[in-house]
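# step 3/5: fold
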Amino acid sequence: MNPSLQDVGLAVKRLQWRHHREANRRLAEVGLSLVQWDVLRHLAARPDASLHDLAVLTFQTDQSMGALAGRMVERGLLRRRDAPGRAVRHEVTEEGERARRGGAHVMDEVLSRSLGRLTPDELATLRRLLAKADRDG
């Protein structure tokens, strides 16, 4: 019998919840939350990202991203830099880069406990199927 759409949706949600719960627990050991690590990861990959861009990438509101960025500046993980016009951009500090790398190691360990069970071909298929399901319209 084929699984229902609800069954598949619930399986995706359960795995995501398991990843988030374990990631937050393990990242706390290196002084980060999952959302802080995600900000560092996205900003390292996209150094010119605006706070709005980071909010979208990390599933936050603009307001919550602004508050988070402020806290990350206070902790020395990010620094503000001037941008054209009134825009303010942020960049990852050396401390932030160390935290990002430590968080990446933690995330690799967390994800390997579930996704690491899949073969490289299965991972590629899963990624392709998730991207296909995520397309608009």
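# step 4/5: annotate
Helices lie at 5-28, 34-45, 51-57, 62-74, 94-112, 120-134.
# step 5/5: archive (pending)
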